[in-house]
Amino acid sequence: MEFAAGVWETKDVEFARLWKEEAAGQEAETAGMIHSIRDMGEISFVILRSRQGLLQAVREGAGQQGDLSRLKEGQAVRVRGVLKKEPKAPHGMELRLSDARILSEPAAPLPLPVGKWKMGISLEASLDHRPIALRNLRERAVFKIQEGLCRGFREFLTGQGFTEIHTPKIGARSAEGGANLFKLSYFHHPAVLAQSPQFYKQMMVGVFDRVFEVGPVFRAEKHSTRRHLNEYTSMDFEMGFLDSFYDLCQMETAMLQSMFALLEREYGTELSLLDVRLPKITSIPCLRFDEAKRLVSEACHRPIRSPYDLEPEEEGLIGTYAKETWDSDFVFVTHYPSKKRPFYAMEDPENTQATLSFDLLFRGMEVTTGGQRIHDYGMLMEKLEKRGMDTEGMEEYLDCFRYGMPPHGGLGIGLERLTMQLLSAENIRQASLFPRDMTRLKP
């Protein structure tokens, strides 16, 4: 009988230990996937890939026996050899092979040149073979950086006393309203896929004061643009006992500073692979919506066509203005018109046509929407009645306000958009592991 002691022991040495200078001259055994092979006749360079990166192995002599003679791309192998310093090798170290054991054999050649620095294929080809394309180090690095953004979000908010929650993604009705809903039958009852965790995170402010969640949201919008997905990952937080909605802007600014500091500290390899320029944030300017519209209209001699929202072109122009005026990659656009904000958005007491809400633009694209919520039950019911909205399906949500809620607000960040803008990617689908849009349901 065997017992699991809670520690997994392996004889394979991790690549990171083999890259160290003091390892030179030692015999080592490790395992990985064969990323690429360069056959030079009497000598072959066998590049191994693991989660940590690449290790160059060298197979010498033309008459090898056993598995050493059968190595090819796509195999999983366990190899043994002596380490030697080599300035031209990845991380300055290579493994002179003395033995190899093939652990798995591919049934077909790789459909993509994953061993190349840049594969030189279209985005559609990459998405069609997504699990294979992501074996390319540059493609894979996108999602290591995305991991770092999620880590930074979680670690910062946990340190600020937030509780992580996990809310349902199937509901009786939407928090946002509108027609862009994926509808389904839930055991013969009508249901929808969640557009956001808005109702749930507000309800949980009455329990934990501060909550956050990282999870999928669904938008049945019939668009096909470089900046939209029908399923994306939202990083949300909600916090109680606000003095002002600017408290949310301050919290997000500090959070972004912490997230980028983590990337700089622990994801240098991936940042270097993709030549990423991290933004330096000391502070983020706040610009009122009406002022932003006026500035863009005057600076670019263009009429204001959409008085209640920002057009993508306007977002780009505001981003340029923020960079040129304040040397900031970010800008908060505040006091959005009430007409374009959900019923729970708190109206500005000085101008009820505006709300105490904001979007955060990053290099000219909206990545965050947030604001202060109505916490008074009477005010909330009045707003619903004013908009002619049916309260069916919102009973439990409204009960929270009936029995008392603190002043609160929150925000949601689109993880893929944040990643896209950080990496200067051309299309948001490059920043989605398995994107879902109007035409793509697989892989």
Summarize the structure.
The chain is 29% helix and 27% strand.
Could you explain how this protein is built, in words?
An eight-stranded mixed β-sheet has the order 6-10-11-18-17-16-13-12, sandwiched between helices. Strands 1-2-3-5-4 form a five-stranded mixed β-barrel. The chain has helices at residues 15-18, 123-128, 130-133, 137-159, 198-208, 246-266, 268-273, 289-300, 312-326, 377-386, 395-402, 415-423; strands at 27-39, 43-50, 53-60, 76-85, 93-104, 163-164, 170-171, 183-186, 189-193, 210-218, 231-240, 286-288, 330-334, 347-348, 351-355, 357-362, 365-372, 408-414. A hairpin with a 2-residue loop joins strand 2 and strand 3 (53-60). The longest helix is centred in the middle third of the chain and has 23 residues, at 137-159. By secondary structure, the protein is an alpha+beta fold.
Question: Can you lay out the helices and strands and say which pair or pack?
Answer:
Elements (H helix, E strand, L loop, with lengths): L14 H4 L8 E13 L3 E8 L2 E8 L15 E10 L7 E12 L18 H6 L1 H4 L3 H23 L3 E2 L5 E2 L11 E4 L2 E5 L4 H11 L1 E9 L12 E10 L5 H21 L1 H6 L12 E3 H12 L11 H15 L3 E5 L12 E2 L2 E5 L1 E6 L2 E8 L4 H10 L8 H8 L5 E7 H9 L20
Parallel strand pairs: 3-5, 6-10, 12-13
Antiparallel strand pairs: 1-2, 1-4, 2-3, 4-5, 7-9, 8-9, 10-11, 11-18, 13-16, 14-15, 16-17, 17-18
Structure keywords:
NA-bd_OB-fold, catalytic activity, acting on a protein, 443 residues, 5-stranded mixed beta barrel, 8-stranded mixed beta sheet, ATP-binding, ligase, EC 6.1.1.23
Rg over CA atoms, rounded to whole Å, is: 26 Å
Mean pLDDT figure: 93
Instruction: Tell me about the largest β-sheet.
Output: 8 strands, mixed
Please report which band the strand proportion falls in: under 5%, 5-15%, 15-25%, 25-35%, 35-45% or over 45%. 25-35%
**Structural class based on helices, strands and sheet pairing:** alpha+beta
The parts where pLDDT drops under 50 for at least 5 residues are: none
Order of helices and strands: HEEEEEHHHEEEEHEEHHEHHEEEEEHHEH
Helix content: 25-40%
User: For the terminal residues, how far apart are their CA atoms?
Assistant: 41 Å
**Total helical segments:** 12
How many strands in all? Answer: 18
**General shape:** elongated
- The largest beta-sheet arranges its strands as 6-10-11-18-17-16-13-12
